[in-house]
């Protein structure tokens, strides 16, 4: 059984992890035109639809993680999202110079987020 302090830490962790994706999803709404174009150039079929599905997944799964409802399933959805988004948007292997460094930073950040989501994903479904 967890002490109150441990419960508070878990609540804070869910808020920070889930909140990052709610925020990112809302930010992506503002950048939908640019992101749709970028996804199209990366060969994504039905890029606009895929973008909006990703945005909904970010916001809904992030909110579920925050609330502690279906946390494991929501965390796994965000792990899958991160795997796709990292390959698509943080493809440092295709770049050189400062742009490569920026993509590496995004890649490493997404790897860290994936690791963070594995903890709530380990909870029983």
Characterization of the model:
The protein has helices at residues 4-30, 32-41, 47-67, 71-89, 97-121. The protein starts with a helix and ends with a helix. It is mainly alpha-helical and 125 residues long. It is globular. The mean pLDDT is 90.
Number of helices: 5
| Sheet having the most strands | none
Oligomer: single chain
Give me the secondary-structure category. mainly alpha
Distance between the termini: 18 Å
Mean pLDDT level: 90
Radius of gyration, CA atoms, in whole angstroms: 16 Å
The rough form would be described as: globular
Beta-strand content estimate: under 5%
Order of SSEs: HHHHH
SS elements, strand count = 0
- Give the low-pLDDT segments: none
Helix content: over 70%
